[in-house]
């Protein structure tokens, strides 16, 4: 059995993770590999008909919106590449499903937040990153406030768009 890559793009908001997902879809097309992109069904912030980045770059692909890890496993089996966007919003058991798909020879790509605004790990992402097959690509974000390109975590903003302090309740 040929084992293909297992890539994990992680980092804060504005780290261009979804742009990496779009690049992975383009790579699958160039390589004539069948592919499917999964997004969590509960994430309704973006279009359901296309992949969209925070910078409003979009790709005309209707991702498959699922919540169940069993759906990811079952629906991913016929494809060469299984790509997950916004992975932190899936149940923590996603790691086992992705490991099983990878063991079946699938190329797996996971993109998601690694930590929250306080630096606490997202459980689903932590479980995926703990897999020994995972090749972790940790990205830095760009701060929309000061312009720095070395943000290691997302900021939490209040309704008035001010930054919520780390020690806030």
Report low-confidence residues grouped into runs of 5 or more. Answer: none
Tell me, rounded to a whole number, the average pLDDT.
Answer: 86
The helix content, as a percent range, equals 10-25%
- Largest beta-sheet details: 6 strands, parallel
Query: Roughly what fraction of the amino acids lie in strands?
Result: 15-25%
Question: Order of strands across the biggest sheet?
Answer: 5-2-6-7-1-8
Termini separation comes to 51 Å
Shape descriptor reads: globular
Number of strands: 8
H and E order: EHEEEEHEHEHE
How many helix segments? Answer: 4
Can you characterise this structure?
By secondary structure, the chain is α/β, with parallel strands linked by helices. The protein has 4 helices and 8 strands. The chain has helices at 17-30, 69-76, 94-103, 123-129; strands spanning 6-10, 35-40, 51-52, 58-59, 64-66, 81-84, 107-112, 135-138. The strands form 2 sheets. The chain has a 6-stranded parallel β-sheet, sandwiched between helices. Strand 6 (81-84), helix 3 (94-103) and strand 7 (107-112) form a beta-alpha-beta unit. Helix 2 runs parallel beside helix 3 and helix 3 runs parallel beside helix 4.
């Amino acid at each position: 059995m040929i084992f293909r890559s297992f890539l994990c793009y992680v980092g804060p908001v504005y780290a261009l993770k979804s742009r990496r997902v779009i690049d992975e879809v383009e790579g699958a097309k160039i390589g004539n590999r069948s592919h499917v992109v999964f997004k969590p069904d509960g994430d309704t912030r973006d279009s359901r008909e296309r992949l969209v980045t925070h910078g409003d770059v979009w790709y005309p692909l209707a991702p498959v919106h699922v919540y169940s890890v069993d759906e990811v496993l079952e629906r991913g089996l016929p494809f060469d590449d299984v790509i997950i966007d916004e992975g932190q919003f899936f149940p923590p058991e996603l790691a086992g499903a992705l490991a099983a798909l990878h063991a079946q020879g699938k190329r797996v790509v996971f993109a998601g937040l690694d930590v929250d605004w306080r630096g606490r790990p997202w459980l689903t992402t932590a479980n995926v990153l703990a897999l020994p097959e995972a090749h972790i690509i940790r990205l830095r974000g760009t701060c929309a406030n000061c312009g720095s390109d070395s943000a290691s975590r997302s900021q939490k903003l209040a309704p008035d768009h001010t930054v919520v302090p780390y020690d806030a309740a």
